[in-house]
Design brief:
The complex is a heterodimer of chains A (288) and B (355). Chain A is mainly α and 288 residues long. In chain A, 74% of the residues lie in helices and 2% in strands. Chain A is built from twelve helices and two strands, in the order αββααααααααααα. The radius of gyration of chain A is 24 Å and the shape is flat. In chain B, the strands form four sheets. A six-stranded mixed beta sheet of chain B has the order 6-7-8-3-9-10, sandwiched between helices. In chain B, helix 2 packs across helix 3, helix 2 runs parallel beside helix 4 and helix 3 packs across helix 4. In chain B, strand 12 and strand 13 form a beta hairpin. The radius of gyration of chain B is 24 Å and the shape is globular. Helices cover 23% and strands 34% of the residues of chain B. The chains are: A mainly alpha (288), B alpha+beta (355).
């Protein structure tokens, strides 16, 4: 039997990848895991706590409240941004000089840094000096997002719709552009009504890009921090304290590193699980 | 029932896509629109279908002016180069879609879809979705949709162009049979002269938005009325040279000459453009191929049954197409023989001087 030559040199080629992943993902993650099962009083002194923090977080009404707020927020913005984005994409011109004008206008909100968006909307919506606040109050509606939870939610959602619908528009527009003209001609010859064209040609053809759009918007909105933090700071009261804002309050405000680490991990697992569920549901038909 | 264009013109902005065209299509056989890419085939079809309105002129169908009538009201069906089917409908639903729009009863839909599916060999695939079919089956589905509608006008816009060679041949053979005796007018657009000849029927050659000639396919091929028609309807491309007639002889490129026989002798003396198809030139003198032409070989393409040789002749590249394999190498100075009886002569106005 001939001796089998073994050559282990190939391992060297994957060292850079392992090192990179270790430094930017695994090591920070393990630090969080480390904190989540221990208690510390500083001075690098740790006490083993097991799953205490996880139990505490999972049973805490505060966590339940921010999780519920987070779900409500994500659900509302998805329900607005996806249909609205598709509608805008459908109404954009298919060709001609206006295409680039529309595209640039659509891309503008996406180019603004998140904290600037928050600050912009904060000033824009202030009831005494902001344009939006003045106009709404001028219509006889009592509106003050720094005082009223409903107004705060309204402003936060409006801001997110303004900031992120463009992303859905751009994705949907790219999807629509990839449908050959012949499809529309065929529909016209068949005598299909505009609704039928949308339902049976455009929507099925948009399925893939919309899956991406929903996933991106879900992840981003579920992890939203900067904009509501700058706009409302999580208030009034705790009314706009979403998961990430709450997490920062616990970790940096109260310096409860253990519970914060446990909450981070739970948060991460929720995002991962929901993305998987979304993706599986939306891709179910594709694999048949 | 047949379609007629009366002085139809189509302009888009400052460009004229279709120059003034008057033509009456036939409903007893295929009408083939033959032309290169961008020659106006698709625009022509859209005008026929009613997807586009002519800028001026009239479209008549079955003795009625249908110029302004919307496409949905014309009972037209169309098959495109891309495979167009509803992506989330089954094959059955795809074929049934025009009948559903027409609000037919369930039994009638089942009958007609079943019949057409049988004809197009789609019966085992009726429950599948288009994405689960091969390209040939997808195009069959699109064809079935066009057939089931029993339209008065069927437009086939390069329907085989996206299929591979084998499927193309198979479907091309079936097409004329499928539409035979249906009483509808069938228009078939293609950019391949060979396809036009294989399908037979009638051919309209298109060049830069103009129908240069319309008639029985074989006769358009044999007797092109002008230079453009001859150019469009030749594959491999026709060989061209400038020549002069003097008395009973004709000379091209100032070096090759031959004696004219028959009717050509009666042409007026002077300059002409001569065209000759590649298969009338070969490396062996026989079968009327008598006039020697010397040239340097540029490209050789051997297919086994025939040899295509590109050679340098004067300022032009000429092509010879002959049976069998000939031992010709690139760079060789070789003598070819041309059959002068097969030459087509065109005047300065590009019209062919009919012999």
């Amino acid at each position: 039997m001939a001796a089998k030559t073994t050559n282990q040199k190939a391992w060297f080629f994957i060292i850079p990848v392992i090192a990179l992943v270790a430094f930017n993902a695994l090591i920070p993650l393990m630090t969080v895991v480390n904190y989540s099962v221990q208690e510390t009083f500083g001075n690098n002194v740790f006490f083993w706590e097991g799953v205490k923090w996880f139990e505490q977080v999972l049973h805490s009404p505060r966590f339940h409240a921010s999780l519920l707020r987070q779900f409500a927020f994500t659900f509302i913005i998805l329900a607005i941004e996806i249909p609205f984005g598709v509608a805008v994409a459908l109404s954009m011109p298919r060709q001609g000089p206006w295409v680039s004008v529309c595209l640039v206008l659509m891309a503008l909100p996406l180019l603004i840094p998140w904290n600037v968006v928050g600050a912009m909307w904060n000033i824009f919506a202030l009831p005494d000096i902001g344009f939006l606040g003045r106009v709404i109050n001028g219509m006889g509606i009592d509106y003050n997002f720094t005082q009223q939870p409903v107004a705060a939610w309204f402003t936060t959602i409006l801001m997110d719709v303004w900031h992120w619908t463009s992303l859905v528009v751009l994705l949907a527009y790219a999807g629509l552009r990839s449908i050959p003209d012949a499809f529309y001609q065929a529909a016209k010859i068949d005598g299909a009504k505009p609704w039928a064209v949308f339902r049976y040609i455009q929507l099925p053809k948009l399925k893939r890009v919309l899956t991406i759009a929903v996933l991106l918007r879900f992840m981003d909105s579920f992890m939203i921090y900067t904009e509501p933090f700058v706009l409302t700071g999580g208030g009034p009261g705790n009314s706009t304290t979403f998961l990430s804002i709450d997490l920062v309050k616990i970790a940096l405000g109260q310096f409860d590193l253990g519970p914060a680490a446990a909450m981070s991990l739970i948060y991460f697992l929720i995002v991962l699980l929901l993305c998987w569920v979304f993706y599986t549901l939306m891709m179910k038909d594709e694999e048949q | 029932m047949t379609l007629e264009f009366k002085n139809v013109v189509k302009r888009v902005g400052a460009d004229t896509h279709i120059h003034e065209t008057s033509v009456q299509l036939r409903n007893d056989n295929f009408n083939i629109l033959l032309g290169a890419t961008l020659s106006g085939k698709t625009t022509m079809m859209q005008l026929m279908a009613g997807l586009e309105r002519p800028s001026s002129g009239e479209v008549w169908f079955d003795g009625k002016n249908v110029t302004g009538v919307a496409v949905q009201k014309r009972n037209v069906s169309m098959v495109h180069q891309q495979f167009i089917n509803y992506p989330n409908f089954s094959v059955f639903e795809n074929i049934a879609s025009p009948l559903r729009v027409a609000r037919m009863t369930k039994t009638e839909i089942d009958n007609r879809v079943g019949q057409v599916a049988e004809m197009l060999k789609l019966t085992p695939m009726l429950g599948r979705r288009p994405s689960e079919l091969s390209g040939g089956q997808q195009q069959r589905t699109a064809l079935a949709r066009a057939l089931v509608k029993e339209a008065d006008l069927v437009l086939l816009d390069e329907p085989l162009a996206n299929l591979d060679f084998k499927l193309r041949e198979e479907l091309r053979e079936e097409l004329p049979k499928l539409f035979h005796d249906r009483g509808c007018t069938v228009v078939y657009a293609t950019s391949e002269p060979t396809e036009a000849l294989l399908l037979g029927g009638y051919t309209a050659t298109l060049h830069e938005g103009r129908i240069t000639q319309f008639g029985d396919t074989a006769s358009v091929y044999r007797q092109p009325h002008d230079l453009e028609t001859a150019r469009v309807f030749s594959d491999p491309p026709m060989n061209w040279a400038a020549g002069t007639k003097k008395g009973d002889s004709f000379i091209i490129n100032d070096k090759v000459d031959w004696a004219l026989t028959g009717m050509e002798k009666s042409f007026a003396d002077g300059p002409y453009t001569v065209g000759i198809r590649p298969h009338h030139i070969g490396p062996v003198a026989h079968d009327g191929k008598t006039v020697p032409i010397d040239g340097q070989v540029l490209i050789t393409e051997l297919s086994g049954s025939e040899s295509v040789v590109h050679f340098d002749f004067g300022s032009q590249t000429w092509v010879s197409q002959s049976r069998g394999i000939h031992p010709i190498k690139v760079g060789d100075h070789t003598r070819f023989y041309m059959d002068p009886a097969q030459c087509l002569y065109f005047g300065a106005d590009h019209r062919r001087i009919a012999a």
